[in-house]
Amino acid sequence: MAKKIVGYIKLQIPAGKANPSPPVGPALGQRGLNIMQFCKEFNAATQGLEPGMPIPVVITAFGDRTFTFITKTPPNTYFLLKAAKVSKGSPTVGKGAAVGRVTTSQLREIALEKMKDMNASDIDGAIRMLAGSAKSMGLTVVEG
């Protein structure tokens, strides 16, 4: 018989840096899950990634207080800021100068890496989505 799912918990945790402090502890504690076990498993699963990279994770909590989790690729904004070599997007989009630029080849690389987590039907659709995200962050998309 399949286990009864009591809920899903969605968090964004830096790779290899899960610990019992908020947001992890309270989110898992209220479902009665083993916080230290999750931290150990998450850190082991993300140890090969760049330390501190934000990793979205979906935790499935079961009625018998066990859990499973799935890690996803980091958010588009993380990749766009890294490609443009800037620390944050523009505070006022559409007004003033752009904070950085990304090339279409950089967008293609990001799209290839993110494709499994994006709801685009093809790579060109994914690139258009990323270009829209870049524009809304105050980044200029240039050919190249």
TrEMBL record:
UniProt cross-references to CDD domains, sorted A to Z: Ribosomal_L11
HAMAP family, A to Z: Ribosomal_uL11
Any Gene Ontology biological process: translation
Gene3D superfamilies: Ribosomal protein L11, C-terminal domain, Ribosomal protein L11/L12, N-terminal domain
GO cellular component: cytosolic large ribosomal subunit
Protein name: Large ribosomal subunit protein uL11
Record-linked InterPro entries: Ribosomal_uL11, Ribosomal_uL11_bac-typ, Ribosomal_uL11_C, Ribosomal_uL11_C_sf, Ribosomal_uL11_CS, Ribosomal_uL11_N, Ribosomal_uL11_N_sf
Top-rank taxon: Bacteria
Molecular function terms, GO-annotated: large ribosomal subunit rRNA binding; structural constituent of ribosome
Complex and partners: Part of the ribosomal stalk of the 50S ribosomal subunit. Interacts with L10 and the large rRNA to form the base of the stalk. L10 forms an elongated spine to which 2 L12 dimers bind in a sequential fashion forming a pentameric L10(L12)2(L12)2 complex.
Start and end residues of each Large ribosomal subunit protein uL11 C-terminal domain: 72-141
Domain Large ribosomal subunit protein uL11 N-terminal: 9-67
Gene: rplK
Family: Belongs to the universal ribosomal protein uL11 family.
Natural source organism: Lichenicola cladoniae
Biological role: Forms part of the ribosomal stalk which helps the ribosome interact with GTP-bound translation factors.
Keywords: Methylation, Ribonucleoprotein, Ribosomal protein, RNA-binding, rRNA-binding
PTM: One or more lysine residues are methylated.
Pfam family, one: Ribosomal_L11
